[in-house]
């Protein structure tokens, strides 16, 4: 068995070989074997260097090797000593060898001794011999040249752009590896980026720069910015001076100075794929939906695209998935990272090490005349606010979502739906008609008085079908033809880029309807009106959507498409769904699979596509389907699966992509492997590992995934699920008639009053949810009907409740509801509500049902009940040893996070770290099982 040192050397040998180095023993040295040779145990005056790097027979660098798990940050001084040590016979490029590496098989750090302030940095892999050869022939290093950048040429730049460029120069001169530029939509972020890219190429000698865009059509827009940019000191266009490639295939132009692409295509190229479907580049990270974070996309060294391939990576419109799903892809390159965004979230600041070099808000942009401001016009209708009820015996239409086939049906029971279900499970044409009619009648009286031409308007729809309904009604209400109103979505029959160009530059279309395709990034300056017929729960995404209207345009340019507009002094948000009032999360959601049908999704998973986005999407759809099943449906599914329910299928899929479950499984795998070898588990005294390795993680993910997907191998089950799913399609309510309750421009309220109103809205929605589902969701049934029962609610039931709440009201998170109660009834709220603890839902439900006088964080309640139980035991003469106390505390903490302690918990941390069930049995003897049951009874609430 290899020692940790030997295993690390084996890995380092392989990493050097991947980068093009020929690895040799010193006694077998053959410098003529290739341009780059890495020699093990190379003798120096300070002793043998672990590896000496020679290029064209000359020493250029040193690799200091350490065992796996060794921290490398303190090893740089040792490497520097070998770099300066004398060697016999060998030629050197310099007395002080310029290139120093530290490696332990898992990490590599690098420093260039020629930099003004040499500082080691993490790198994905070793640099190739030809790269080091090129660096030794350059005059100065990149970091040295960054310190001598000339002053910014200010001609033709806005003040905010000048400030951004100057601040970025300072950051780069200080060798800050990451920098974030926040500039309001419409203030010229891309122009600013092209400006600093020009400076980095011309004055800092950057070899190549990667420009990552949010989706494909923004790449085309970015390419146009480069083509239109005129060099301030030269007069020629950027693309006349330097080659710029917008990747539409996986073939890289090696002479291009700038590469524009999406991170999805970049990942495909790093994986060595010859082709990539361009359709996968057309969805923005801002529009993505779902709750659970994914495991990062992992990459391996690719000789065709080595880590030194780019000196700078520019990330345009940084969204959340950049930092959790794609982070390793970004960190693959040995490059400075520069982020551009109009709407940063907390993760954005964290990823860029809090190095915000420019902050230019929309409010400031409006004052400076760089953006236009907005007015909000609200339209509230009865059905939007309250939903509707259609009596049994009424005729409604049903539409199959996949085939769009429609059929009439007579209701056997009353059809009751809420406003949140509109255009998702039920569509009511008269509700859409009522909103659009009010918008039309207000256009030239209240919204744009004195005008006659419909201003360029963008309508946000909930789905592709919803967009079709809107397009048809807009054309009908205005009495116009097809050119007047167009749908621009991923499902559009016409070319989306052509439609966007016409919407931007031509008289028609006057109205565009989209779901999400032009909600972010797309520049449509003549746009004067945004009509929201869908709510948005992400603050960042909503800000991006509003940003479509903020762009300024000259009166002459506006007149070419809207001749009676005069000047664009503002834009109007028409809010027909309460989007400006609804609770927003600070972060964006992560990916969902837009446009992939249920049947195709099932088939993809059965074929082995176990991408986290696929599994998460299927879990969400199955959970939604489970809410609609009839008893006969449930029985049929359980017969086919051998007893597994649809809810259990969904839960297993969710487990497979849930990092908490993955971590627990990885710890279990690592502990089992270590104990089988007679070794301590990771984290235990004497273990060489602090935590499970990537291999343990991989095994864990594979095990959870196999458990989740194996039943979908059965074609009969897939057919059954597809059939059942098709039975629960969109209901078209032609019976209900809507009416406008209120319409007008919003009145300004104080921030405090607005926050209180939002909090009240959260609480009211939560209480309404409990009332509506008290007889359907098991946890609510138990808490509502047996408020003081012990052990009545299981953790699985709480997870079911949380999932149901998320499906009905994505904006209602446990922490958000908790914060709302804290704002409204602060004196009655005790303890914080940690977002990771689903058990707090029990406290929230009990408080909402008025079963408790105070809202107490569930863990705090468990602590108090544990203290009371211990006191009662002591009073009864029952005492516990110090070790027993430790075990009891672990059990208490498990109850706080999972409601109970079960037998399988003893096979997982922290219990297994202390010896597992066997040790617990020794500590407590025959009373263990009775004690666990007693503790569960006493601590649960």
TrEMBL record:
Pfam families: EcoEI_R_C, HSDR_N, ResIII
Source organism phylogeny: Bacteria, Pseudomonadati, Bacteroidota, Cytophagia, Cytophagales
Native species: Hymenobacter sedentarius
Region of interest (Disordered), residue spans: 667-692
Bias-annotated ranges (Low complexity): 667-688
Cross-referenced InterPro entries: EcoEI_R_C_dom (IPR013670), Helicase/UvrB_N (IPR006935), Helicase_ATP-bd (IPR014001), Helicase_Restrict-Modif_Enz (IPR050742), P-loop_NTPase (IPR027417), Restrct_endonuc_type1_HsdR_N (IPR007409)
GO molecular function, one term: ATP binding
Gene Ontology CC: cytosol
Any one of the GO BP annotations: DNA restriction-modification system
Domain Helicase ATP-binding residues, every copy: 170-362
Protein's recorded name: Restriction endonuclease subunit R
Keyword terms, alphabetized: Endonuclease, Hydrolase, Nuclease
């Amino acid at each position: 068995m290899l020692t940790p040192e030997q295993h690390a050397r084996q890995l380092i040998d392989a990493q050097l070989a991947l980068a093009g180095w020929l690895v040799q023993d010193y006694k077998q040295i053959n410098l003529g074997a290739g341009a780059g040779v890495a020699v093990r145990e190379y003798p120096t005056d300070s002793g043998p260097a672990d590896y000496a790097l020679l290029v064209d027979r000359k020493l250029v660098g040193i690799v200091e090797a350490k065992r796996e798990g060794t921290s490398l940050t303190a090893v740089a001084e040792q490497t520097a000593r070998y770099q300066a040590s004398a060697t016999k016979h060998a030629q050197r490029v310099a007395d002080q060898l310029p290139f120093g590496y530290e490696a332990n098989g898992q990490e590599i750090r690098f420093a260039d001794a020629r930099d003004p302030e040499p500082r080691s940095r993490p790198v994905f892999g070793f640099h190739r011999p030809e790269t080091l050869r090129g660096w030794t022939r350059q005059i100065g290093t990149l970091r040295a040249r960054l310190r001598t950048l000339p002053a910014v040429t200010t001609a033709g730049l806005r003040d905010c752009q000048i400030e951004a460029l100057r601040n970025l120069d300072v950051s780069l001169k200080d060798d800050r590896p990451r920098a974030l530029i926040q500039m309001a939509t419409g203030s010229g972020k891309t122009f600013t980026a092209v400006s600093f890219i020009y400076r980095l190429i011309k004055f800092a000698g950057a070899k190549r720069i990667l420009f990552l865009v949010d989706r494909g059509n923004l790449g085309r827009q970015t390419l146009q910015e480069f083509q239109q940019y005129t060099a301030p000191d030269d007069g020629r266009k950027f693309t006349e001076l330097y080659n710029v490639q917008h990747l539409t295939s996986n073939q890289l132009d090696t002479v291009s100075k700038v590469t524009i692409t999406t991170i999805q295509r970049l990942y495909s190229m790093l994986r060595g794929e010859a082709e990539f479907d361009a359709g996968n580049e057309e969805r923005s990270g801002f529009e993505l939906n779902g709750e659970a974070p994914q495991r990062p996309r992992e990459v391996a060294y690719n000789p065709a695209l080595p880590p030194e391939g780019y000196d700078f990576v520019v990330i345009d419109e940084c969204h959340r998935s950049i930092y959790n799903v794609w982070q390793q892809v970004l960190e693959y390159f040995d490059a400075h990272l520069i982020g551009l965004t109009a709407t940063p979230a907390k993760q954005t600041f964290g990823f860029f090490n809090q190095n915000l070099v420019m902050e230019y808000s929309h409010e400031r942009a409006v004052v400076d005349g760089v953006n236009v401001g907005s007015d909000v016009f609200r339209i509230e209708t009865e059905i939007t606010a309250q939903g509707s009820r259609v009596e049994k015996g009424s005729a409604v239409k049903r539409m199959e979502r996949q085939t769009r086939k429609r059929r009439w049906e007579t209701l056997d029971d009353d059809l009751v739906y809420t406003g949140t279900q509109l255009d998702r499970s039920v569509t009511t044409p008269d509700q859409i008609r009522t909103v659009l009619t009010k918008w039309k009648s207000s256009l030239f009286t209240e919204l744009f008085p004195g005008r006659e031409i419909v201003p360029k308007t963008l309508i946000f729809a909930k789905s592709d079908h919803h967009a079709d309904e809107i397009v048809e009604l807009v054309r009908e209400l205005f009495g116009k033809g097809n050119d007047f109103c167009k749908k621009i979505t991923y499902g559009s029959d016409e070319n989306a880029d052509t439609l966007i160009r016409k919407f931007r530059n031509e008289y028609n279309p006057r109205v565009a309807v989209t779901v999400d395709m032009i909600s972010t990034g797309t520049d449509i300056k003549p746009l004067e009106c945004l009509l929201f017929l869908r709510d948005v729960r992400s603050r960042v995404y909503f800000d991006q959507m509003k940003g479509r209207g903020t762009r300024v345009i000259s009166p002459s340019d506006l007149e070419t498409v809207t001749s009676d507009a005069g000047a664009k002094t503002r834009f109007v948000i028409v809010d027909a769904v309460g989007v400006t009032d609804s609770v927003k999360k600070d972060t964006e959601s992560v990916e969902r699979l837009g446009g992939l049908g249920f049947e195709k999704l099932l088939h993809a998973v059965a074929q082995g596509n176990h991408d986290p986005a696929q599994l998460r999407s299927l879990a969400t759809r199955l959970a939604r389907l489970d809410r609609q099943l009839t008893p006969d449906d449930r029985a049929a599914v359980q017969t086919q699966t051998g007893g597994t329910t649809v809810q259990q299928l969904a839960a297993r899929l969710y487990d497979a992509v849930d990092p908490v479950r993955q971590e627990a499984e990885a710890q279990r795998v690592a502990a089992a492997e270590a104990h089988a070898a007679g070794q301590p588990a990771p984290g235990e005294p004497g273990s060489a590992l602090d935590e499970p390795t990537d291999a343990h993680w991989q095994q864990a993910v594979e095990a959870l995934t196999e458990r989740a997907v194996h039943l979908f191998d059965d074609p009969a089950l897939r057919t059954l699920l597809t059939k059942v799913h098709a039975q629960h399609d969109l209901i078209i309510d032609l019976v209900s008639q809507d009416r406008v309750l209120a319409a007008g421009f919003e009145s300004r309220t104080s921030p405090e009053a607005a926050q209180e109103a939002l909090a009240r809205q959260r609480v009211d929605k939560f209480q309404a949810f409990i009332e509506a589902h008290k007889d359907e969701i098991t946890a609510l049934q138990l808490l509502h009907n047996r408020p003081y029962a012990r052990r009545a609610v299981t953790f699985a039931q709480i997870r079911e409740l949380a999932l149901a709440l998320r499906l009905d009201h994505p904006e209602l998170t446990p922490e958000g509801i908790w914060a709302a109660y804290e704002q409204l009834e602060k004196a009655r709220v005790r303890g914080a509500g940690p977002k990771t603890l689903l058990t707090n839902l029990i406290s929230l439900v009990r408080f909402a049902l008025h079963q408790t006088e105070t809202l107490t964080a569930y863990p705090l309640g468990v602590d108090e009940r544990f203290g009371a139980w211990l006191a009662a035991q002591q009073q009864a003469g029952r005492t516990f040893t110090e070790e027993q106390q430790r075990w009891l505390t672990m059990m208490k903490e498990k109850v706080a996070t999972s409601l109970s302690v079960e037998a399988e918990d003893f096979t997982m941390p922290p219990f297994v770290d202390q010896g597992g069930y066997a040790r617990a049995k020794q500590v407590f003897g025959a009373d263990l099982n009775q004690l666990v049951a007693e503790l569960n009874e006493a601590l649960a609430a």
